[in-house]
Structure formats: C-alpha cells, structure tokens
Amino acid sequence: MKRKVTIAIPVYNGEKYILKALQSIVRQTYKVDKLLICDNKSNDNTIKIVKSFAKANSALEISLHINPNNIGTLPNFNKCLELCNSKYLLLLAVDDRLKHDAIEKLMGFYKQHPDFGVVAGKVDIIDENERVRFKSSHSHTIIFNKGQILELVEKTNLWIHPSAALYNMEYTRKIGFWDETNIGGDERYWAQILQQFPLAIIADSVTYQMVRRDQTGNLEHLRFKDKIMHFKSNLQVADFETDPQRRNKARKLLKKWAANQCIGVGRSVWKNYRKYGLALRYWIYGIKENPYILFKYRFFKTIAITIFKK
Questions:
Q1: Fewest CB atoms within 10 A around its CB: which of 196, 271, 298, 310?
Q2: Low-confidence residues of the chain, pLDDT below 70?
Q3: What is the pTM of this model?
Q4: Is 147 left (phi over 0), alpha (psi -120 to 50) or beta?
C-alpha cells in the first residue's frame, strides 16, 4: 500500500530543537507513515540524536538522508520534496512543533476536498523557551479557488507558514518545487499552486512556530540587497493574475505590503542588531515603494518608538 503521509524535517545543526520536533510527530493522533530527515551536513549532534530517536521508535519508518555537502536552505527543502514517495507531505522546520492533532485536522479537510493542492492551518508563536507569545484566533476556513491570486494577496499577503501546510504531492510534482533563486520561495509558491489548483487555510492553528533572533529568516534582514530582491520577486506574483485590473490591484497591495515589511524589518535591525544605517535604508526603501505611508500615523509612531524607546 502506498504511503499516505510523510513529515519531513530539513535541518542543519538542529541539535537544540530536533528532538522536540520529532516527539511532536510521534504524538500525532493521525498515524504518520514515514518520517524523513534531510540533513544539510550538520557538524553538531543532530545526526546522533536522530539515530537514537529512530532506534527508540522502530515502529515508525524513519529515513535519514545526509547531503554530501551543505546545499543551502531552499535546496534542502526541495530535497525533501524530491525524496518524498507519499501522497501527502508536511515540511516541518526543525525548531517548530506540530500540535498533537495537526495532521488529523489537515487530513480531515482533504477527505472532504481531495482536489486541493495544499491545505494549511494557522500557527501560534512561541519563543526559545517555548512560551506562547501569540495565539491565532479561531475563525473560519478560507478557500481560494484556482486562479484567485488577488484574493490570496488580500487575505494573506502571501504568508502561509510552511510548517503548517500539507502538500498534495501528486499536484506538487506537476507544479514543480520551490524557486531556489528567491529568498521567499515559499511565498511565491502558494501563488504558483493557485495557478492550477485550489488552496485552503483551515480555521484551526496546527503548529507552534518558534521565533528567535538567530533564525535564518531574521539573519536575512542584515542582507539588504537580498531582502529587497525578495520584495521585488514577490511583486511579480501579481503577474500571475490574468485580468489586468485584478493584476494592478494585486500589485498595489503588494507594494503596500513591501513598504510595511520594510518598516518592520528596519525596526528589527535597529532594536536587535543596532544597525542604524541599515534600518534607515529599509525605511527609505519602504517610503519609495509606498509614499502614502508618510501620511500614516502608525508609520511615525513605529519610527518614534524604535528610535527613542529603550
């Protein structure tokens, strides 16, 4: 019988976090058929922890793939997609944790709607000490039909957390994998899916997302050119819309989103890394993308709090 659900963990030097990620998988109320770990040539105890866990959980099929070289973050995510031989796949970041009924809830939607390309849930935010800092509110399931790129931009700003998304791998193989040339490969990917298949975000939170200073995403804030390329790449998502009016509306929304992101990123590099010149560059770029932000009280409040509040 073909495997139904695989959970894959792409990892590099994840010794501090991987055990709890693995434990969150074996505690699922819906049986997971396979666990796949793609290690990006770690030089800490990650592999040792995985092998010890596999020995203690022999009832679960666990596959460990070790890349001969560190191939980079997005290529390692794609390696998980490439090696998956199940019908469904969830990519779990090493420092995130699945809620115990995550797969049950995501698969529950697929049972009713088997033709969706991706079914995702919401996330709760935890810190490095696993204290919950933000709980997503329970609302309603959002369904995006094929081609609804504008609606995706309006309701999500392209943000769906990868650790909360269950892929229909039959469709994923038809679409292709993440764009490895784009830092925000996951954000463009949701629009890429919608070009051919519907996508859903269920009402429930299914994942605990850990936010920490040394995460790859936060460290990318220090690489200004790369981050700006990320924003520019996401603006191109509007071109997936076939109707000119909808395309223009989506592009305007994405420009506003990029401007707001620049204000937030600037605040982060000012407060967390004391990179004042870099923060100013982000703020200036945000104003260029959306000059109307200068008329927003929230903009000046954010800048004032960032600079003057200790």
A1: 310
A2: 1-3, 182-185, 212-220, 310
A3: 0.89
A4: left
Place of tokens 């990892």: 11
Q: Which two tokens stand for residue 234?
A: 């996401």
Separation of alpha carbons 97 and 132, rounded Å: 12
SS3 244: helix
Tell me the pLDDT tens digit for each residue of 74-89.
899 999 999 999 999 9
Q: Which two tokens stand for residue 205?
A: 């939170």
Query: Distances from the Cα of 169 to the Cαs of 90, 161, 308, in angstroms?
Result: 10, 18, 49
What does the block give as tokens for 91? 């990519």
The answer to whether the beta carbons of residues 69 and 38 sit under 8 Å apart is no
Q: Where are the beta strands (DSSP E) in the chain?
A: 5-11, 34-39, 61-66, 88-91, 97-98, 118-126, 132-134, 142-144, 165-168, 199-210
Judge contact between 184 and 234, C-beta under 8 A.
Answer: yes
Q: pLDDT tens digits, residue range 157-170?
A: 888 999 999 999 99
* The two three-digit tokens of residue 137, written as one number: 């509110």
Q: Is 100 helix (H, G, I), strand (E, B) or coil?
A: coil
Angle subtended by helix axes 224-235 and 185-194, to nearest 10: 10
Cβ(120)–Cβ(189) under 8 Å?
A: no
Q: To 10 degrees, the CA torsion angle through 146, 149, 151, 155?
A: 120
